[in-house]
């Protein structure tokens, strides 16, 4: 749980069992990004922090829960976090796209032109497989 005011409830996909609800405070996403970057550089020290990253992401739609608190998928991003998305090869507005097909097209459009992509980040491997199949067929 969190000692901060809950700004959103995140629900997990349920791939490891029943879907769970996780409270999120306003600093949750920043903490996750910092932890991810630290782990990435620990495991892959050859990556350069100036390299961009392909992130394939489809943003879920916002719902309102009890008490007016937002409810989204745990992987969904809020508008306020887009200022921190400079490490990715696509513009931050791309991460607000809510359909997988359109989002993947935008990510590929920018990533395939970026010579400095050093890593790939996806929520689920199946999304990346779909992107690769799309790339093969077009």
UniProtKB/TrEMBL annotation:
One protein family per Pfam: GH3
Name by which UniProt lists this protein: Uncharacterized protein
Species of origin: Holothuria leucospilota (Black long sea cucumber)
């Amino acid at each position: 749980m969190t000692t901060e005011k809950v700004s959103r409830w995140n629900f997990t996909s349920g791939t490891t069992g029943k879907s769970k609800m996780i409270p999120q405070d306003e600093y949750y996403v920043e903490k996750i990004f910092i932890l991810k970057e630290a782990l990435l550089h620990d495991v892959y020290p050859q990556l350069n922090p100036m390299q961009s990253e392909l992130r394939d992401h489809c943003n879920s739609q916002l719902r309102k829960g009890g008490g007016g608190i937002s409810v989204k998928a745990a992987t969904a991003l809020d508008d306020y976090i887009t200022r921190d998305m400079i490490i990715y090869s696509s513009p931050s507005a791309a991460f607000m796209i809510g359909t997988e097909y359109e989002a993947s097209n935008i990510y590929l459009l920018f990533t395939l032109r970026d010579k400095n992509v050093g890593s790939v980040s996806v929520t689920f491997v199946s999304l990346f497989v779909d992107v690769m199949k799309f790339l093969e067929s077009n």
